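User: Mutator family transposase, Mesorhizobium delmotii:
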Amino acid sequence: MTKRDVRLSRGELKALLLSDEDGFRRVLQTVVQETLEAEMTEAIGAEKGERTTERVSYRSGYYERKLVTRVGVLELRVPQDRAGRFSTELFERYQRSEKALVSALVEMYVQGVSTRKVKAITEELCGHSFSASTVSQATARLDEALKAFFEQRLAEPYPYLILDARYERAREAGVIASQAVLVAIGVDWEGRRQVLGVELANRESHSSWRAFVAGLKQRGLAGVEFVVSDDHPGLRAAIREVLPEAVWQRCYVHFLRNALDYVPRKVDDDCLMELRWFYDRRDLAEVKRDLAQWIAKWQAKYPKLVDWVEDNIEETLSFYRLPLAHHKHMKSTNMLERLNQEIKRRTLVVRIFPNPQSCLRLVRALAVEIHENWLEATRYLNMDHLREHKKENLRALAA
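Assistant: Predicted structure for Mutator family transposase:
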């Protein structure tokens, strides 16, 4: 960071960590385990399986060790060597300076896990420095794990897909620029939410969205019946091209925000509130009946708004094709917006990433953390409602 950038105090960093102990406990455990592996490499003079004249001993398995911290118990595997040369000061040093260690690791985490930061932290942990190559390898392993997660095969169908983007700032070639973070969430037939994809793009465009959605299909994305997104033209075009069989739902929250462009700045009547109420109706027939009355009521006062609503509202009513129990969750991108808010809460402390790679690393790590929490939670939707709804539609067609 430059001198002008805002730095977090150790107290602020610790508060950030403690705001989500379980997620950061896993991050802390991973980093401490990597530190032990790197320390062993330095102690014996060689990586696993590496042949070198500098080797002074050989690895000989692990023993289990629990480390109690303020963010939970870390389950660690401490490496051993045949000659008994390896010992670590990590546990003793950790107990003496837990606050400094936890804060330093969080600082490393929120700043993108740069090699320089990792090197400084391992020096603080263990009392001596590691080679730059060893530190780089530890960081590379983290990147590889995240890359593997977001390239894994999507082996099950996802009838619901939610797409959205947010923006982060990162330095690239000495210039600070916005990076579009493209995110996809799927809901499987068990009703579980899953993070399917997270990628960076220089901007939201037809080509970037098309590449993103096509990449999901190449990984096995299938069975998509319903897609929710905002009205970005590039995204809409990508959905039509890559997922032509899916019904598209324009997020009604974004739609209502867009409606503000067609009314005076201060609206002192119920026009917009009545428009919002259409999304709480039980079925489409009720919406169309009430919409006709709304148009007649407000045509004279807000002609631009009424004309715009008539032309565009149909795109926001696709969710009425779904079972009533799913309307609340599938009429907007709020499911993904909440994930974006959580990401924003963490990335806000960084402000400007040193490079796009560090931005993607942090956002992906947070996304994986949220993904795992979702899988451990109770199912988000009861998909039996959708199964029965589809059966009823088939029966109605056959009648």
